[in-house]
Design a protein that fits this description.
Blueprint lengths: L2 E2 H7 L5 H9 L3 E3 L2 E2 L5 E2 L6 E3 L2 E2 L8 E6 L16 H4 L8 E2 L8 E7 L2 H8 L7 E9 L4 H7 L2 E2 L2 E2 L4 E8 L2 E8 L6 H8 L2 E11 L2 E2 L8 E3 L2 H9 L6
Parallel strand pairs: 9-15
Antiparallel strand pairs: 1-4, 2-3, 2-5, 5-6, 7-9, 7-17, 8-9, 10-14, 10-15, 11-12, 13-14, 15-16
Helix pairs in contact: 1-2
């Protein structure tokens, strides 16, 4: 069955769909010896698909792992500025894996990696609106902060879904908030806090989908358990 080439590359664990589109734009993908273009399709059973002259790999063993990303690491496979990447921390897992979603450089916590392109695309699709839960340490206008954050419905004229905010503790001019969002807009929580008169000192993701960070130490990773994987695949809304 013919599929778009960027989708086939993602399913093979070679790259994300977006990265696959860039490979196509650069003319680095060939189908049956001919340079392919963005928008082309192929049948992986009938056609020979090559990227940089190397045949597209058959389905590799699926790998699923959870990293506790420390602050100071960017969520990319490589960085043109030479910054440390989250991918470096999972390089010893024995497979080429890709991050599912992002955490910005100054944020930390749970980050899922996999080479299961179909699952990755299902989990990051905006329509699934899965919960992402963060612990956020803030200072500033603390009185009424949870209510102000929960009342925000737009950022830079772009609508956002309602947010659940709970005050966990407050002392010495700082508060720790539990913030649950259903979207993944760029630096969403930081932008919300700034709009609410708050300064973010620490932002840690502790849960995403059905996965929980638990006691995993910063910079360490582990494979998902069978139970976690069953629950995660049950949450990816594949009844699309």
């Amino acid at each position: 069955m013919a599929e778009r080439l960027q989708k086939l590359m993602a399913q093979a664990g070679l790259c994300s769909r977006r990265a696959g589109e860039e490979l196509l734009r650069q003319g680095r993908v060939r189908v049956n010896g001919c340079v392919a273009a963005l928008g082309d399709s192929a049948d992986p059973v009938l056609d020979r698909i090559e990227v940089d002259g190397v045949p597209l790999p058959s389905d590799p063993p699926a790998v699923y792992l959870l990293l506790n990303k420390p602050r100071g690491y960017v969520t990319t496979l490589s960085d043109e500025l030479g910054r440390r990447t989250a991918a470096e921390l999972v390089a010893d897992c024995g497979a080429r894996v890709f991050p599912v979603g992002r955490l910005d450089k100054d944020s930390e916590g749970l980050l899922l990696f996999t080479n299961d392109g179909a699952l990755m695309q299902a989990l990051i699709h905006p329509r699934h609106e899965v919960d992402k839960i963060y612990l956020v340490t803030v200072s500033g206008q603390l009185d009424g902060a949870p209510e102000r954050l929960a009342a925000i419905r737009e950022l830079d004229d772009e609508p956002i879904r309602p947010t659940q905010v709970q005050l966990l503790s407050r002392e010495d001019g700082q508060a720790v908030l539990r913030v649950a969002i259903h979207e993944g807009k760029n630096r969403q929580i930081r932008r919300m806090c700034r709009k609410a008169g708050l300064t973010v000192h620490r932002l840690q993701r502790i849960q995403e989908h059905t996965l929980q960070l638990g006691t995993l130490k910063p910079g360490k990773w582990r494979y998902l358990t069978d139970k976690e994987l069953r629950e995660l695949k049950g949450s990816d809304s594949r009844d699309q």
